[in-house]
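Hey team,

Filing this mostly as a record. A colleague (T.K.) asked me to run one chain through the structure pipeline before their review meeting, and I want the input and output archived in the tracker in case anyone asks later how it was produced. No errors, nothing strange. Just documentation.

Input sequence:
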Amino acid sequence: VNWADAPTRMLRAQWHPFTISSAPLDGVVEVHIRTAGDWTRALHERVGSGESVTVRLDGAYGAPVEGCFGYENLVLVAAGIGITPMASVLRQIARLRDAKQCRIKRVYLFWLNRDPSSFTWFEDVLVRLNEGDPNQRFLLTSVYLTGLGNHRELYNFVLWRAWSAHFRKLGTCPFTGLNVPTHWGRPEWREVFRALKAQLHGERVGVFCCGPPALSDALSDQCKQYSDRVTSFIFQKEHF
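Output structure:
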């Protein structure tokens, strides 16, 4: 993306790569941009003031997640803003399901975030898919809040108990609005893949990750460990 009418020559000269978060059938091109530097901060201030901006696009370019539609069972893992390619996939899946043209049988979504407010980025698409699948037979969503430290610390323990009580009473998480609880900390990937293998015995499973290298390495190791001649986990990644 190039900001064609940016206020300075330096900003106008820059090109920045972003992942498309809209689906091919949406009819629009949408990206989610995190404020992380001078260029994105200036763009955020301009858009936030209500002014329009002119941008130039070069692309789109291929991404590993495009291969997900070749599988009947998917595991999508995202960390933070890495949810953007997964959101594109989920939006496309929602449209294909509406048209009765989706061959995917089951999707496991794992989304890790340090900041609770980040879960609102794609709340609309997650709520839409969950509403159409109240018993979580198609989309199984697991969200993890990683940025609050150890829940045995007093403040965090009180907060954790409060949102747990909210979920038990109303059936939705106060942070995400979804009908699935928010987990504390990071997933135990060994336990996750042990359960996946039991549920998907004999299947060919596509595992797609968008996150930091450490997360990708951990998932790659688990895919190798739990694949055999009967059940296979095929891993693909992209880094943000």
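Quick notes for T.K.: DSSP finds seven helices and eight strands in the chain. The beta strands are 2-3, 55-56, 73-79, 106-113, 139-145, 182-184, 204-210, 232-238.
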